[in-house]
UniProtKB/TrEMBL annotation:
The keyword rRNA-binding does not apply. Residues 32-254 form the DJ-1/PfpI domain. It comes from the Bacteria. InterPro entries: Class_I_gatase-like (IPR029062), DJ-1/PfpI (IPR002818), Prot/Nucl_acid_deglycase (IPR050325). This is Type 1 glutamine amidotransferase domain-containing protein. The keyword Glycosyltransferase does not apply. SUPFAM superfamilies: Class I glutamine amidotransferase-like. Gene3D superfamilies: 3.40.50.880. Keywords: Glutamine amidotransferase.
Amino acid sequence: MRRNKILVYTSSATKIPLKEGGTHNVGIFLGELVDPIEPLIEAGHEIEFVSPDGKGCIIDEKSYNLSNWGLSKKRMEHAKRYFDTKLQDLGIGSPQKLSDLLNDKEKLNSYDVLFIPGGHAPMTDVLHTDWLVNNNYNKETGKLLFHFHNNNKITAAICHGSAALGSAPFVNDKWIYDGYNMTCVSMAAEYITEDIPFFGIGGHMPDYPVKILERLGGIVHTKMLSLSNVINDRELITGQDPYSAKELGEKLLDKIKNWK
């Protein structure tokens, strides 16, 4: 089996803005990071990391809620150990800076697959340049996505990480993922996160992945909460939420094996 190089694009953001004012503390969702890439690592593929500013990611405390793990404490503890040991050894705490990678064409060309994990954090610095300041999309993320799209290389994303596709450019007045089938965190999940007591984050985000992707021309498919949902279309493969993370890893591994 050919050993592929997989670039994992992590957010280093720790806050998202709220429409009502103020911010909410966020990070990367543990399961949406570990579950998709663990099978790739164990299959012998090479993993490297990049972030917008060259800083490491923070794990969102809410991702330790057992409801994200099918109520399995064993699964969650395994993921924590994998993050603290294996992923640290692979360099997740000291990723490349995206602008440096974009300037190194030879290194950029060496990657076969791009993966963007979820959690609210990517909304702030992967989709946007800095959502705490303005709504400008991150053009460097757009350049990275265009590179993989234009070279017919696999791009994978999950949950709020899928929103990063919104930063991709237009070519001939059409978004590069126009008409693609895809998925991301559902509006039902956003409602629970924002409006249900105990879960509430203290406000509402100014925008949402489903709405962003649909406005641009994506065909977004979401399922009921707690059901896995992975959508595969051309070079793009996306997962809905933590319940989809394990299946995304399995299907991404198969996609890599069969990709030409």
